[in-house]
Design brief:
Mean pLDDT: 96
Structural class: alpha/beta
Distance between the termini: 10 Å
Largest sheet: 7 strands, mixed
CATH architecture of the largest domain: 3-Layer(aba) Sandwich
CATH topology of the largest domain: Aspartate Aminotransferase, domain 2
Number of helices: 16
CATH class of the largest domain: Alpha Beta
Number of domains: 2
Number of strands: 16
Length: about 425
């Protein structure tokens, strides 16, 4: 564990919060589908002197001097990303996933152009065109949905009909709460018919695509892939844009800098390079495959015990539980109940949810973080039992405290990488 003596002496309040968060992570179970644990190597480079360096521009074309080593780490990040994802070009500078998406829109579109993305309640992301986002003031967004939430199949016929009517400039695959795989080949055919770019936001599943256990949109001819670099990829919090060729890459580069953001966060770029290096190792493929095994096993256990899951299962790392049908209570109450026993997940809308986003019908849970800690199929049944017991006894404070003790004891067997509390 890093030594925090300087922090402890200078700012005891922040130090106390840090220790509290360490205990929360070590003593609890992280089932939020978008969270994970980074390696000690990634954590070390994030707290490095690269933080001190401004590096506007790109390797070999910077606006400031002193770039010998920043050029080296950014070039390594780019080359490793291209290999991992079979890309022709990579921009590793976006500060996060949302800016990566917005920079891509500005690279490919003119104001008023149309983007077709997945409806938020059916699994899409805010940046895919939700009306609360500012990007909808500039571009026009239309949506597609599942044909049947019982199976998760997208309504590709309706997608084609809407595409022919609205002529989107970008057809966007990707999601933040969709448990199945998309048919990238069908989407590419629709996009070609209307002359649209194909863009995939793979933020949630990047690690599994890099490992080859989920399909790569580039194999179906997609033009652009955007992603975060944390989540299943197990890197630092940040974003990345990949394109199939250098010509598209030039448009992306100009949009990211100077078009959309200033100097890259170089310690994060270096950390991305380290994480990509880790993802190129054989053991990462084993890890990524285990994420899906764990997710499918947990989903099967929950369904066997009376839980209603959207799409009745999962193909990837996440699942959605319809809490109203399963337990007769909304997702927020499930989230709060499980917080009391040290299990963290998030409330989430289900398809065409009649409830509001801050008080939705469902919860989302995923397996990347617990898989990083070494848990496998057997542990999924233990966790599933914890979840069901807590919800059953949600009004019994003594029983919840008893379960909390059991969860803490359970977690002692599965260390969090790089975090050891004496």
């Amino acid at each position: 564990m890093p030594i925090y003596d300087a922090l402890k002496a200078q700012d005891p309040d922040i130090y106390a919060a840090l220790l509290g968060e360490m205990h929360r992570q070590v003593d609890g179970v992280e089932l939020i589908a978008s969270e994970n644990y980074i390696s000690p190597a990634v954590m070390e480079i994030m707290a490095s002197v690269f933080n001190n360096k401004y590096s506007e521009g790109y390797p070999g074309k910077r606006y400031y001097g002193g770039q010998e080593f920043t050029d080296k780490v950014e070039t390594l990040a780019i080359e490793r990303a291209k290999i991992l994802f079979k890309a022709g070009h990579a921009n590793v500078q976006p500060h996060a996933g949302a800016p990566a998406n917005v920079a891509t829109y500005f690279a490919l579109l003119e104001p008023g152009d149309t983007v077709m993305g997945m409806d938020l309640s059916h699994g899409g992301h805010l940046t895919h065109g939700h009306p609360v986002t500012y990007i909808t003031k500039i571009f026009n967004f239309v949506r597609y949905k599942m044909k049947d939430p019982e199976t998760g199949e997208i309504d590709y016929d309706a997608m084609r009909t809407v595409a022919l009517e609205t002529k989107p400039k970008i057809l966007l695959a990707g999601f933040s709460a969709y448990p199945r795989e998309l048919d990238y080949t069908k989407m590419k055919a629709i996009a070609d018919e209307v002359g649209a770019y194909t863009m995939a936001d793979m933020a949630h599943i990047a690690g599994m695509i890099a490992a080859g256990v989920l399909k790569n949109p580039f194999d179906s001819g997609f033009d652009i892939i955007t992603t975060t670099t944390h989540k299943s990829l197990r890197g630092p919090r940040g974003g990345m844009i990949l394109s199939r060729d250098a010509e598209l890459g030039k448009k992306i580069d100009k949009s990211v800098f100077p078009g959309f953001q200033g100097g890259p966060i170089m310690q994060m770029v270096a950390a991305k390079a380290v994480a990509f290096g880790e993802a190129m190792k054989p053991e990462f493929k084993v890890y990524a495959a285990q994420i899906i095994k764990n997710s499918q096993h947990l989903a099967a256990f929950l369904m066997k015990n009376g839980c209603k899951l959207v799409t009745n299962g999962t193909d990837n790392h996440l699942m959605l539980v319809d809490c109203i049908q399963s337990f007769g209570i909304p997702g927020g109450e499930v989230e709060t109940t499980l917080d009391k026993i040290g299990i963290t997940l998030n409330k989430n809308m289900i398809p065409d949810d009649p409830r509001k986003p801050m008080d939705p019908s469902g919860v989302r849970l995923g397996t990347p973080a617990i898989t990083t800690r070494g848990m496998k199929e057997q542990e999924m049944e233990i966790l599933g039992a914890f979840i069901l017991q807590a919800i059953k006894h949600r009004a019994d404070a003594a029983k919840l405290e008893e379960l909390h003790v059991e969860v803490r004891e359970f977690c002692k067997k599965y260390p969090v990488p790089g975090v050891k509390i004496s």
